[in-house]
Amino acid sequence: MPHPEVTHQPSPSSIAVGSEQVWPEHAAPVIVFGALRSGTTLLRLMLNAHPDLNNPGEVDFLTDHIRRAPDAPTGWRYDLAALRADRMFRAQQIEIPDGLDGLDLTHALLQRLAAKKARGLLCVSMHRDLPLAVELLPGTRVVHLLRDPRDVARSSVDMGWAGTLYHASDHWVRSELEWDRCRETLRPQDWVELHFEALMDAPEVELARICDFLGVPYSSTMLTYPEHSTYAAPNPKIVRQWVHGCASQDIKDLEGKIAPLMTARGYQPSAAPTQAPDRVRRVRLALRHKFGTWAFGVRNYGAVPFFGARISSKLRLTGLQRHFQRRIDAQIRRMLR
């Protein structure tokens, strides 16, 4: 669908310096928020391909390792060792400035992320702790990316994060409950919702809508991301993969657990009425989940790193746990290439 050219003025989150835009020190970025496996990476590639947008990727490390500290100058303090060990932080290849901590460090890291692209409104991707991010970054706007939880769960099992669809739906539920909490605090003009299925079905229309929210004109370059990534062009055939890729009983188990929230998000259960698994079924699902994740971990990361990371974590042997986690992270990077 063609879109008229419009004159774009720098958004409130960017200022003009010469012929470029620079992200100011304490501006709030736009947060692209959605559950893991909901399409946030694909949307990041689309946004980053826009000449006036800048999405360097996932920044959950900004909230994963910060804690309230009433005695600190900004009221917050980072676990700097944990931040440096974080796989996603290391993947960004940015430095922690000497002498900075708390909110000062948060803003400095955002500045470094913004500098990875010469210009553009800064957008960052997150999967958790949205209420905390909104608290830390007042004035932020949110793009809420939503995907059918059955497809999210199916993909999560494929990634080895869970052994059953029943358990793989948990992180989708957590993300959506966090979104409910944040939506109550945000002004209507500060958030927009995007369904992954609609993005696959009509990418130009949906991206134009997102661009309008962000205050930039739609650009056809947003769909050129396959030229410089391993991701394929939008395809309606990749939605509803759960229909043919999952056992019917597994779908019933998942739907019996989260049907009210699914329905509230516009995803109708495949069978009615839904019924939660009984106690015997839940025990069987728990065993499948445990052994499924163990089998995936041993197969892909090796028995010593996989079990070593878990045992040392339970024993609070932080140094040893990070040693094993680095070995796991290295294998994950090789798998993702």
From TrEMBL:
Organism of derivation: Roseinatronobacter domitianus
The keyword Transferase appears for this protein: yes
InterPro entries xref list: P-loop_NTPase, TPST-like
Protein name in UniProt: Sulfotransferase
Cited PANTHER family: PROTEIN-TYROSINE SULFOTRANSFERASE, PROTEIN-TYROSINE SULFOTRANSFERASE 2
Keywords: Transferase
One Pfam family, short name: Sulfotransfer_3
Superkingdom of the organism of origin: Bacteria
